[in-house]
Amino acid sequence: MALGQKDRAMGALKEVQVAERERYIIAPQDMSIETRTLQLGELALPGYTLFNGYLSESTYFRFSIPESQLEDFAIGANKEISVFYNDKTIEGTVNSIKQLGAYANIATAYPDYEIQESLFEVKILPNDAEQARSLFTKATVLVNTKQ
What we know:
By secondary structure, the chain is of the alpha+beta class. It has two domains: 2-55, no CATH class; 59-143, no CATH class. It is 16% helix and 31% strand. It has helices at 2-21, 129-132; strands spanning 31-36, 51-55, 61-66, 78-83, 88-99, 119-126, 141-143. The strands form two sheets. The protein has a five-stranded antiparallel β-sheet. A two-stranded antiparallel sheet has the order 1-2. The longest helix is centred in the first third of the chain and has 20 residues, at 2-21. The N and C termini lie far apart (81 Å).
């Protein structure tokens, strides 16, 4: 019984030594951290998510547009995007256009459209990812449709 208790204590000591050597967490990619899920004193089990965030280089703009404005957008077209909170303008390229199946799926809060029109989601990637890197998630932006 004493040997079992000794082995148990040695196992606990090795666990502490391993934890002491692993003081740093290295992120697999550059990201902006939004929240940390582990609080002081909590134990993180293997696979536990420590931080939530987003990849800075993956920033894009998403708009819902009615079919009456669809002619203003074409895949590959350049668009000018105005950011309200910092009065900056960012150039972007239309990456994809897809039809939305239901009103509940719209990306824009209050699109200006007629009720009988179909809605489409337009995804625009910034031409210079560095310009969009410091933007806040879900900030209000406006796309210039006449361009």
